[in-house]
Amino acid sequence: MILSRSLRRLIACSLVLGGPARVAAQSHPRLDSTAVTDIAKLLMLEDTRTFDAPELARLLNSKHPEVRRRAMLAIAHIKQKAGIELLRARPLPADTALAATMVFAVGQLRDTLTIPWLDSLLTNPRTSPTVLAEAASALGKIKTSAAREALGRFLLKTTAVPRTNDAIGEALLAIGRANARGDISPIARWTTSANEEIRWRATWALFRPRDPMAVRDLLTLANDRSATVRSWAVRGLVKSQADSASLGVQALAKLLGAVHDADRRVRTEAIRALATYPDSSALSALVTALHSPDSWESVSAAEGLARAKAGWTIPALVDAGKPSRPCALRATAMRSLQQFALEDARAIASAMSRDTATYCQNIAVQLLRDTIPGAARGGGRGPRQIPKPVARPLAEYRAIVQKWIVPAYMGRALPRARWETSRGTIDLELYAGDAPLAMDAFERIMNAETIIGTEFTRVVPDFVDQQAPIRDAVIQRDEVNRHRLTRGNLAWASSGLDTGRPGYTLNHTPQPHNEGDFTSLGRVVAGQDVVDRIQLGDAVLSVKMISPR
To answer: What is the reported pTM?
Structure first.
């Protein structure tokens, strides 16, 4: 089915703004019983990671556009290279939503043989804006030098106009993910863009490869009017790169100034970068930051001092480990002292082992066990065992389709959830139609309330908050989708596709380097300031599902 021009424009607009389109019910062909059953079969294939080529081919040729789109996503999730043959056996669909999904699916399979095809989409002036952006993102998942070259050509030749703006942004993130370094001029030309979104992505692309050739540009960007741009720029001013560019003195001076920036992200990243400099001025700045009331700054400073191992900083770290200081700072100071002042670390651990916060107690006891000669060590768990796929009855998959996919397809409001935490309330909007298996698991966890009491046991300043594993939660199948890993994104931790089980994660920043590797289950719609204040040992105190409006 080919949609009307006005509908294609509406879908394309929605997709460009960050995710799969949700349009009014009257714009869609109805999901009848046959379509629901077909989508349920696709969910079963995904859940069991079964590559059934004849069945997938049949569903790719379905009369219903949503079944065809879901078949493309199923191939992306099952992740067998043979799926490329099924996807590329037909021309790119005229329907923008289907075409963009096809390109996304091809990108998830990460086959270097698809680079010329993706390159041809970038260079074709008739490629729609949404497909153009997906082609750029797909090349960033392949990561080879050939993929980088294709992205570089696009960034050098293209002009910023409404049709290309989103693709330029995706291409900048994609070129920053490349495994090989290369010419930075395709990136640098966008650092003066009037568009802040493009400038921060260009800055990220310069920072990420740790290329000394980028240091001069990053020094300039560290003065940008956008705090987001400045925060990415100072990350790249570490000593090894700056010295290799013969700009170490200038970079150190810039970082010493940036610790007083008005924005906490910039201050935090400046502190982290200063930890790579052994100069007394840099270490003095870290010691001063230990006293910051902002845990992002104090914890980052304590981490940095572990690298220096300077004896004169021991008293400051011991002071940071006192019971009056926050758990995250005490724990970090303790671990830092463990590197070069073990007795002081043990003293902090002895006091922390009697802390009222369970997490603080546990990490203190672990350090004591690990550092006392002859003490019993915790046995390693070995590699995480991924459960063998077991198909549920088809009726269960049909129920998931009816409950989560059909309402999203019809354009109804997305479900929401509310967490009351130690720091305040967080409201989440959930991508039910784009991660239905994960959504089903999330609702069960919420209704069982097994998430209540779950602590945040990994808090990385200006990066992520991560919960401990939730009681009775099981390892989940990943459903990587076209929602990007943005600030406020809801996902769960894993050590590779299909290896993670909730606790959930909440982002402080975008995570372009992880695109294609984690399932985006939802996003924070209220309470991002709470997310940014979460500290180690904070917990989820109560939860509830919120009915869509």
So the answer is: 0.90
